[in-house]
Specification:
This protein has 11 helices and 13 strands. With 296 residues, the protein is an alpha/beta fold.
Length: 296
Amino acid sequence: MKKFQVIADSTSDLEKKFRDEYEIDYFKMNFSISDTEYSADLDWTELSPLEYYTMMRNGKRSITSFSTTEVFINKMKEYLDKGLDILYIACSTKLSGTRGSAEKIANELLKDYPERRVVCYDSLRSNYSQGLMAIDAAKLALEGKSMDEVVEYLDKNVLKYQVHAIVGSLEWLKKAGRVKASKAFFGTLMQVKPVICSDAHGNNYAYEKVFGRKKSIERLLDIVVERFEDPENHMICIEHADCQEEAEYVAKQIEERCHPKAINISSVGPIIGATVGPDTITVSFFGKEVTIFDQE
């Protein structure tokens, strides 16, 4: 029997099939397009991925916002009332303030639950690399591991969870202020197809320049092959922002070259999608420890 509940948030992109299988919940964030507000529902109940990314292709910007205080309180109370502690696998604090908000709310809430604990863990990640971290934490919880044991595991392995991505343009990341890159990247936005990762400090970091879409896809594949470890026990998650055929090509190549336990293809969620834009492809997996970071 598990002793605590694992909760993620909308930046984890966790699909329902995994949330159900591993009993993971999440804090829903929000976004707005043209003054219409939507819930960042990972099941896409209000907008389909095609509708969402078509809006962005037509020049409309998606503005994201944190989970509300009410969402945090209601979700935490749901599990605290059941006698469960909570492990919140939060989006990187370099990218979002949700962890800090949740921690403040939890500290106030725990005054009424003196025997319970809430740990808000900085994943240093977003996207499915954050989701994979939540899945592994939830697996250990279902095995009966204590929250301290799981946090110890995460501390040891946090930098092995990683996401590498290519985008159609740096323009969306630049507008959102969600990427670190040298002036050289931004000086040639139209020509450069950057390779981006969640770095060792939790930032989105554009760390390689590739010219041309095809070359950027091939470079992304080379990076996955080089860095992916323990294929018999780990799956690879591929996400795309309205570029299904290219995602399927990436999946086929990864299957032939890496032979992972499983490959999952899904759409980039609405919160991450707002910052990376259409034509993004991300690959998340467990592999060699990430050591790269912006040194400028």
